[in-house]
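thought: fold this chain, then report.
action: predict
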Amino acid sequence: TYKKVYEVGGERIICFRDLVQLVNKKIGNREKIILPVPKQIVSIAAFFFERLFSIPPFTVEHVNALGEDTKMDTGMIKKDLEFQPIQLDKMLDTIIEQIIKDPPNLL
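observation:
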């Protein structure tokens, strides 16, 4: 495993809109409207967030990453380290439970 780079992800390919809908469902916000916002506007907001908050809600780098194809090949990490990805639904449950138990300090 020395000098190897592993891609870590799940088997399921999901677009950002579907991820937002899934998170909303998990936290009980099923009726929330998802409004598409142009990338340029979100990038401008991210630029200012980076300067206003010590821990911004999102950054320009995050916005740029949303436009990238992030399909991952987990074959090597499964073979070398016996890694088994956790299903997205289960991982979201774990993350949401942790956030509820110990909310992050964002300011």
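thought: worth noting. The two ends are 39 Å apart (CA to CA).
final: tokens above.
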